[in-house]
Amino acid sequence: MDVTTPRGASLVLGAVLVFLLTWVALHHFTQREVGWFAFLGSLTGFSLSFLIILLVPYDISQTLSGGDKVLMPFSWDMMYWASFLLCWVTYPLLSEYEAASGFTVAGRLMSLRSTWCGLYVAGTVLLLLCLVVGGFSVLAPWCLAMANAWALLVSSLLMAYGLVAVPRQFWRQASPSFELKRLYCSAVALDEARLGTQYELQDTIAEARLETAQRSAQFWDPSLERAFALLQLTMEECELLHLELTNGVPGRPHQPACGSTPRRLEQAEDVAPRVDYLAQLHGALRQASIEARRTACRWEELINRCLLLEDIEVRIFFPRFWKHRLFGPGALYDGTGARESLGGPGGPGAPQFPCELRLCQLPVLRTAWHKLVVLWLSILRRWKLPRQRQDGPSNECPMCRRQMLKDCRTEGSLFIQRNTKCLDSGVGEKGLEKGFECLDLEKVSTSQVDECSGLAASKLNDDLYWVNNDSGAGPVLYGIRKNGQHVARLRVSGAGANDWEDIAIGPGPTKGKSYIYVADVGDNYRKRGTVQIYRMEEPKVERGRNRNDDIRVSAVRFDVTYPNNMKYDCESIFIDKGKGARKAGTEGRVYLITKGDNRASDPQWRGGDVFYVDLPRESASLSWQATSTRLNLVLATGADITPRGNLIAVRTYGEIQIWPRPCEWSVEEALSKQPCGVASKNEQQGEAIAFGKDGDHYITVSEGKYPKVWYFGMTQRFQKDMMDKAKAEAKAMEAQKVA
Predict the structure, then answer these.
(1) Model pTM greater than 0.90?
(2) Structural domains of the chain, ranges and CATH numbers in brackets
(3) Longest distance between any two alpha carbons in the chain, whole Å
(4) Is pLDDT larger for residue 590 or for residue 378?
(5) Which tens digits make up the pLDDT trace of 662-698?
(6) Cβ contacts of residue 80 below 8 Å, gap of 6+?
(7) How far is CA 404 from the centre of its chain?
(8) What would the DSSP string read from start to end of 568-632?
């Protein structure tokens, strides 16, 4: 090709211009974290794609004019082989390289042990073997046959896709309602993937933060220092990304959890494996950030697409005339600045029938139609695409507006798992007692709750449950919704955290106020003769508050000693309240149930013993009061009482039992009767149980990261039957006493 000719010069100038424009566009949209390897690979691919558009008209003109016979075949060959190398060699290795561990280019290249490398090696060996055995004359026909077969297959697929799928896609895209239905279904899986990647990023950041916090200042090595510096830089970038994706405010600096064991000081022989571990952690951070950013971008695009289609559907649903007549003033602007009159008879957009005009002018019909449309839109958006998740998911069936329980199919719910069934059907999950409804809600959304041991329903806040971690987690409580959404963090001052096992909500020294009770009573090895109970006023949690901003409260400490120098392991407390407590004068009394492990011969290990203590207004040293009541169970891990005090629940790892408590009975009398085994789930290590604020349900949570929240609704008939049976038994006991 002669570049001095107008055609040659224009071709070269066009190629340079395409390359520069592509570089400017990519540089504008590329994030600063992208390395120059990835940028160069993307620039090459986009430039080749745009050069095809440039070469096609030039090739046609050269063919028609009988011009250059060498340049165009060479150009297309170069384009083909360059695309082949980019698609099958460069891009797969580049994607692996971007997510690879290592702090240097050589280290990241050495860590590429993927299936692509194996395929490349196998293909190279096979190619060399064919060349050695038969030469190029034998290999060429096979390559041509394989290329033709591949081209025929791709052409058939693309032709079928172009003739059927593409027109069908455009046809369906013309219907906003159909597109919305499709997007609503895909939103479920996409939202779960988005949250999963954010949780994974959060866990990886926490692991990296812990690793940098345990860095030893007494040992210095250049490679180790470089590894820590790069890990710290990547961790800070990932933290900013996590805050951006979660729309959060920068929280408090990370503090290592209480009881964490620091890593021993590095020695010279430990440098290489330590650097390798830091490299793996660095790669995990990069991979988690890439996945979190990708899923968040897809979610944002889906949200914007849904909002646009909803607006389009509304505009289609309301023609301009009806929208104007029902909602607008007497005239509209047509977008060009000219006012379009719709009021006069016979004018543009005027109705053809006088009855329409009269009906549209009736205020009653206009208001009714407006309310119906707004209700329809609000229900659609609340069912299909909730904008915010702070209030938790709806526990209602989208088809009949009733609550849901397991084993029925409901499509389109974003936050409640499918497999649900309406409560009014009266059919429960297999293994559930009649009168109970099980609802499988979401998992606890924060990794900070990784060993949930106590659970209590807030009295001041709707749909809020306070939870605590087991030993070694510090004096902190977390507020969650029934759907597991983390909404608050409560930091307790004036309290230690040896082994917090359970919490409870109940009355206290000031009438009308709600108090949180924390039981620091865990003692697996029976070494503590004195345990602690902490009491604090329950705070009000405002809606929209940043969940990572600490709510600080001060606790009153009570040291309580077991009688007869005994030592027990306990994980269950509850606070007496309700009409029965007021009648017996035991309101605010703290009850404790020992855990045990079925060693019936030793009172310290048998479990099921019940103690109580009455707490004064100020901090004091007290003693547990023993009762004559002993529950016929072991391994009690949680307990609670309804706000009315009419039901007492105690759970173990494998079951939940409920005792009815009429107002004529004390707690000791109620617990001495036969309990009712109720619905439960086979959780990994279930320790937490709490009745709801209204006492019509209870929820359970197990230990572990992101544990599921299980909701069990109690029907009114079940509660009434239990109370009727207990009252009949109470009357019989009174009759026996009189006799």
Answers:
(1) no
(2) 318-333+346-384 (no CATH), 436-738 (2.120.10)
(3) 125
(4) 590
(5) 888 899 999 988 888 888 887 877 889 999 998 889 9
(6) none
(7) 21
(8) --EEEEEE--SHHHHHHT-TT-EEEEE---S-TT-HHHH--EEEEE---SS-EEEEPEEEEEE-S
